[in-house]
Write a structure and sequence with these properties.
Layout lengths: L1 E4 L5 E3 L3 E4 L6 E6 L8 E7 L4 E5 L4 E4 L8 E13 L2 E7 L3 E6 L12 H95 L1
Parallel strand pairs: 1-4, 3-10
Antiparallel strand pairs: 1-2, 4-7, 5-6, 5-8, 8-9, 8-10
Amino acid sequence: MEIMISEDYTAYPDSDLLGYKGETNVRIIEVDQPEVEGADTYRLRFEYRNAVYDVPIVDGKVIITASLLCEVGQIKCQWIATKADGDNYTLVAKSQIFELKIGDSISDDVAPIPPYELSKSTADKVLEAESNALEYAKQTEKYKYEAMSFKDVAKQQAGIAKTATAQAQAYAEISKSAAQTATQKADELTALLDSLNSALETRLNGGAVDG
C-alpha cells in the first residue's frame, strides 16, 4: 500500500485496505511525503473505536503489526508531521482524515490435525460400519424373500383349505340327496308291501266264501 502526501499535505492512498484481522508484519505502507519545515518526525495516526495509535514513519515506511489489525471494519487514518519536545512531540502539520478498512478473517482457534493412528482408527470404524450396513442389507433382503415365500405358502394353504371346504360341501349335498332317495325307495317299498298284503288278504277271504 502507498500513501502520497502532496505539498499542501493532502493524503492520497492508493488503496483503502489496511489488512486483515490477525495478520502480523506482512504488510508495509510506503509513504511519499514532503519535508515539513520545523518537523523532525513523521507519523501515521490510526483511530479505532477505543484507542488511537501514532506509528512512526521510518525510512518512508510503516510496518503493519497485529496490534494495528485488532478489529474488523472502518478506521480513521491521518498523516502528521511532528517535532520532538522532550518525551512528547508537537504537531507541526497534518493531512485530512481518510478511512481505511480491516477485513475479516477466520479465527485462529483451529483444531489440530488428528494423528495418523486416530485417522486410521476412524477410517477403520467407517469401513466396519459400511461392512455392517452391507451385511444388514443382505439379511434384510433375505428376510424379505422368506416373508414372500411364507406369504405364498399361506396363500397356497388357504387355496387348499378352500377347495377342501368346497369338496366337503359337495359331499354333504350328495349324502343328503342319497338319504332322500333311500327314504323315497323305502316308502315305495312299504306301499308295495301294503298293497300285496291287502291283495293277499282279499284273495284269502274270497276263497273261503267260495267253499
